[in-house]
Write a structure and sequence with these properties.
Blueprint: H1 3-18, E1 23-39, E2 42-61, E3 67-74, H2 79-94, H3 128-144, E4 149-168, E5 173-191, E6 194-197, E7 200-204, H4 213-225, E8 236-242, H5 244-256, H6 260-264, E9 285-288, E10 309-314, E11 317-318, H7 325-331, E12 339-340, E13 348-349, E14 354-356, H8 363-368, E15 372-380, E16 390-401, E17 404-417, H9 418-423, E18 425-428, E19 438-439, E20 443-451
Length: 453
């Protein structure tokens, strides 16, 4: 734990108490990052940044039942500024409406900070030149893999290191460090005057977790090449397969419908479905904030509560919401350790590492058992309504005929209702690829509308 960060949050809590706060919490987020992009043989840009920011949340006794709250933040961590911001935040809180549910968590705070493998100390010494070299290797690999790869949107490498220090007036103080490294390549393929682009990327908490840059470039090129000659299809209803990347977006949308704030506000179609079947037997969905090396892992959440493993959907049955202490109080349920907070905001709810459990079939086997259908490899737009579950997205992918990939398709729309889609999942694949904090194996939905010509 940074001594300076600990001193800053301690000072902030002392000053808000003197100013009249009933309760408060404070956090300092300190991060440093570097990014670079290579396009062809040229370096597009190199960026390095460092930032430290303090966030203070205070709760004061209101004019009626409940506590009034306010949040402020600053990147000036001098003690004079901390004192001034603390005083001003208390004054601001006194002007806000009291909330009978507001307050710090009543549950026990995290009692440990296990090593979750969130960074490698040796990676702190990574140089800009080393990340430029990673980007160069991936870019060269993509461009040299096939004569039809004649351009690109560039290959980008990045590394970010962060330390979070959090404390509250109930006596909790904790800190953890983390890192995030990525390599992203986006080549362009050209044939008969038509261009197609696609991408591939690798991410990890440690540099050693990343895939070899040469393979990242090659795979990105293969994905771009397989889109050449894409066509539209006639509107129909067929089985739709989502690959690992596009299936993860469905998991994210389902998780958003389990957010406690959406539940108590009745802005999710699942608000009254606790304990009911909402998906097929093949669907078990888990959120685990303590998955070793997970891109969403942390030892405690944005309120100092221990993160944990939550089974959200068990063989199709809805078992849990995602909650912080506020949304939990609204619903009369304890927090699930999913509070998320930045310095400039009050706690909210977010998934940590969230996924659907893998099934027995590979994607190749799923394709072989699909007489006719669509494999989605890209989704476009944001056509999802969490209140109704209605789903409509632009898409591109590969058409399946006779259990084989027939040709690429584009300029199509897939449509359905997320509730029905989850109920109609007939196969879950075996490949669970962690490229983000939300992941999924490939899944097949037995029937969706594919709108084309």
């Amino acid at each position: 734990m940074s001594t300076q960060s600990a001193d800053v949050v301690t000072r902030a809590l002392e000053r808000v108490r003197v100013a009249g706060a009933e309760a408060a919490d404070a956090l300092v987020v300190e991060d440093s990052s570097l990014q670079t992009r290579v396009r062809g043989s040229e370096i597009d840009f190199v960026s390095q940044a460092r930032e430290r920011c303090l966030g203070i949340r205070v709760l004061v006794a209101g004019r009626s039942d409940g506590l009034s709250s306010a949040v402020s933040s600053t990147s000036d961590l001098s003690m004079e500024t901390v004192d001034r911001i603390a005083q001003q935040t208390v004054e601001l809180a006194r002007e806000t409406r009291p909330d009978p549910v507001a307050g710090l968590p009543s549950e026990a705070f995290a009692g440990d900070t296990p090593d979750l493998g969130l960074f490698d100390v040796a990676d702190r010494n990574v140089s800009v030149e080393a990340r430029i070299e990673d980007a160069r290797r991936a870019e060269e690999s993509a461009r040299s893999s096939d004569d039809r790869i004649d351009n690109s949107e560039g290959t980008q490498a990045s590394s970010t290191f962060a330390e979070v220090t959090y404390a509250n007036s109930s006596g909790f103080m904790g800190s953890y460090e983390s890192a995030y490294h990525a390599l992203f390549s986006q080549p362009i393929a050209t044939e008969n005057g038509k261009m197609q682009r696609d991408s591939w990327f690798t991410t990890g908490r440690r540099l050693s977790d990343l895939d070899d840059p040469v393979e990242v470039g090659r795979h990105a090129a293969r994905r771009a090449l397989r889109r050449l000659g894409a066509r539209r299809v006639t509107t129909c209803e067929v089985p739709v397969l989502f690959d690992t990347l596009t299936a993860a977006s469905l998991v994210g949308q389902l998780a958003s419908c389990l957010n406690g704030y959406s539940v108590y506000r009745q802005t999710t179609f699942l608000a009254s479905r606790m304990g009911e079947r909402i998906a097929a037997d093949a669907v078990t969905m888990i959120d685990d904030g303590r998955r070793p090396g997970g891109l969403g892992s942390k030892p405690f959440d944005g309120e100092g509560l221990a993160t944990r493993r939550n089974v959200l959907v068990d063989r199709g049955h809805l078992e849990s919401w995602l909650l912080d202490s506020y949304s939990g109080r609204k619903l009369g349920i304890p927090s699930t350790g999913n509070a998320s907070r930045g310095p400039g905001s009050a706690p909210g709810v977010a998934a940590t590492n969230c996924w659907i459990e893998p099934g027995p079939c590979t994607l190749e086997e799923m394709i072989r058992t699909t007489p006719r259908g669509l494999l989605v490899t890209e989704l476009i737009g944001m056509g999802f309504n969490p209140v109704t579950g209605d789903y409509s997205r632009g898409a591109a992918g590969l058409w399946i005929e006779g259990g084989e990939i027939a040709y690429p398709v584009e300029e199509i729309t897939i449509a359905g209702n997320l509730g029905e889609m989850m109920t109609n999942v007939d196969t879950v694949g075996s490949e669970l690829l962690w490229q983000n904090r939300i992941s999924s194996p490939p899944i097949r939905i037995s029937r969706m509308t594919v709108a084309g010509e």
